[in-house]
UniProtKB/TrEMBL annotation:
CDD domains: TDP2 (cd09080). It is found in: Nucleus, PML body. Pfam families: Exo_endo_phos (PF03372). This is Endonuclease/exonuclease/phosphatase domain-containing protein. One of its GO terms (molecular function) is metal ion binding. Its cofactor is Mg(2+); Mn(2+). It comes from the Eukaryota.
């Protein structure tokens, strides 16, 4: 079996080492926001953006009415990583191309490896349409894996920063601030209205069971950034590892709304689970199914639609599939379903709508 198709033992060893310890709180300075650059493709290569803005886009729309957010965890702990990621990117490209042309798309990815980042930046559809927050692993808490975000070029990025969480796995929040122009009705000749911000947070909360629990600390650390007065709306999404009873109320305890629940979804429902269906039967029998992946939001934004994505997506290359089967590997791209939410900016303070038919 080729090295690229092997289970990543170095990652497993690092995680096993982390499991042997408890999460230790660092000094306060450690948890301060860490600004980072982001990247755009100029038709020949990727270039970093720090303080210099990218060339203006002819399709620029800094006051969008609608927004599509996709979040997906691509399992880093199983073999055949390259063909899995290739299939995942092909699938994501179909979701992007099927989105209405006027609707900006944002993609959150978790459990990315350095090799995954190479595949992302080499994808033509990514180069053409998206900014990327991570060209390589330089801004991750550790060098082995992390999160990355793709931001539609129709949007104007104001800043990108990471906030470390208390974590023994090096978890953090990857924040992107999107600049929004004031609406026309708020503009007057006598008074200037300050530009507002849509804040995005891509996160992978602490895995497994911890005593004391860590995920409540992590989401409560994210909440002040999501409720920052400079933001008009905030969206947080990712693999929230919601596997214990207390996870069900973390959003409300932090004054956040859960997109799935807002549209009539129910806990302990088969149509909400995002983990447990695409794992070996023995694993499913031991751990069951759970709604690990979520989209949370607050502010002047309303959720219009929500669905799971990535269900049944497999590697399709016949030669690779044959090798995977010979090695006893499942063909799933990842063990997680992803989640996709459609949002209306400026829709957070409108009357409640009938949501019974809105949940896919």
């Amino acid at each position: 079996m080729s090295t690229s198709n092997s289970t990543p033992t170095h990652v497993l060893e690092a995680l096993q080492t982390a499991l042997a310890h408890t999460a230790q709180k660092q000094g306060d300075d450690f948890y301060k926001p860490r600004p980072q650059q982001y990247w755009y493709h100029d038709d020949s290569k990727w270039k970093s953006i720090e303080k210099t803005p990218p060339p203006p886009q002819s399709t620029a729309n800094i006051n969008p009415k609608a927004l599509r957010l996709i979040s997906w965890n691509i399992d880093m702990l199983i073999g055949f990583a390259s063909p899995r990621m290739s299939a995942a990117l092909t699938y994501l490209s179909t979701l992007v191309s099927s989105t209405p042309p006027s609707t900006p798309v944002i993609i959150f990815l978790q459990e990315m490896t350095q090799a995954d980042l190479v595949q992302i930046r080499d994808a033509k559809w990514v180069q053409e349409r998206f900014y990327i927050t991570d060209y390589d692993s330089r801004d991750w808490m550790g060098s082995l894996y992390g999160t990355t975000t793709l931001v539609d070029k129709m949007l104007k990025i104001e800043t990108v920063f990471r906030v470390p969480w208390i974590s023994k796995f090096g978890r953090d929040g990857l924040f992107v601030d999107i600049a929004l122009s004031p609406s026309a009705e708020n503009l007057t000749a006598e008074k200037e209205v300050e530009q507002s911000v849509l804040r995005l947070c891509n996160t992978h909360l602490e895995s497994l069971v911890a005593d004391p629990p860590i995920r409540p600390l992590q989401l409560s650390a994210a909440a002040p950034y999501l409720h920052d007065p400079k933001t008009s709306a905030s969206l947080l999404a990712g693999d929230l590892n919601a596997i214990q009873p207390f996870d069900r109320t973390l959003h409300s305890e932090n004054n956040l709304k859960d997109a799935y629940l807002e549209l009539g979804g129910q806990e302990d429902s088969g149509d909400g689970y995002t983990w447990g269906y695409q794992v070996p039967q023995a694993v499913r029998e031991r751990f069951g199914c759970s709604r690990m992946d979520k989209i949370l939001f607050t502010g002047d934004v309303g959720v219009k639609g929500f669905e799971r994505i990535g269900m049944g997506v497999k590697v399709v290359d016949e030669g690779v599939v044959k090798e995977m089967r010979e090695k006893g590997e499942d063909e799933w791209v990842t063990d997680h379903y992803g989640v996709m939410g459609d949002f209306e900016l400026g829709g957070g303070r409108k009357e409640e709508i009938d949501v019974r038919s809105k949940l896919a």
